[in-house]
Fold this protein.
Amino acid sequence: MKIVICLNTAWNLWNMRRELIKVMVAAGHEVVAVAPPDEYAPRLATLGCRFVALPMDNRGTHPGRDALLLWRFWRLLRRERPDAFLGYTVKPNVYGSLAAHALGIPVINNIAGLGSVFIKGGPLAWLVRQLYRLALKHSTKVFFQNADDLGLFVGGGLVPPDRVALLPGSGVDLARFALAPSPQRQPGAMRFVLIGRLLRDKGVWEFVEAARIVRRQWPAAECCLLGFVDAPNPAAISRAEVDTWVRAGAIHYLGVSDDVRKEIAQADCIVLPSYREGTPRSLLEAAAMGRPIITTDAIGCREAVDNGRNGYLCKVADAKDLADKMERMLRLSCDERTQMGIEGRRMMEERFDEKIVLHKYLDAIAAVRP
């Protein structure tokens, strides 16, 4: 079969859907990867797929530009004539799906979190819901990464209940993210790392404020940020803000990495105080490598933590409660934190193995075979 897979960045295709592309190619499918071009686009050819650049305004909501995007999707899909369209992220899921439906191409969607629009609500959230209702109405399969989002879409009439399925997030490659020994440090000299795009709704501000609180009592504790600054998102944290925090001694900025395993291995605890997620891949990868995690008791985030077993849950948008959980982690012995990491690894093996996700996708593709 010929399959088009589309995301909002080539970086996303490479970092988040690489294994899916590889297994589709290995199964004999012709895979066309579609996204706005960036420095990661040339790497996709090494996976055995063909990359097609598609300009996409990921930041904006201008109706004229979105109408142009819909036309671009229709033109691309009419030219390629795939047997299935796989959509991820808001604009491919909406405009790519609408174009595919118009051409009679089967669609498989993945709703990997709902982002800042659903967090804030208001007229724009209402509009996005209506667009989703139109776009998903005729989809063959709509995958969700947590039960809350699935319930919201089915309960709100945005997708027919007989078309949905639940995935364990994006899963985690348990062989690649192998259990790693914890760093050897002096008491109180832990390293906390937040991994992700530096966005306000990822809880970056709360993490920085919590770092200030923690370091007053635990000056040897280190708090680090790893991820893109000035991301194409209205909630993006600016480089100027990050530089201010670094100069004040609140945090260290580690830049970006093509291999987060190195940073996870050097961390003692991974923190993600996000307001809402699908299921955060960074937490799954950290747990697979045996690192305890701290995240919010929020939709998508809570799926990765059994509170007290492999980490702690904190309140959403509450820097003081986050600091309390970080200090609680600091008070644990090295053996207790190691045991938390072992429990996290066991949890990933039981529930979040990437093979589960890949098999469900191959089954969904086989179901639309002409």
Summary: The chain has a mean pLDDT of 93.
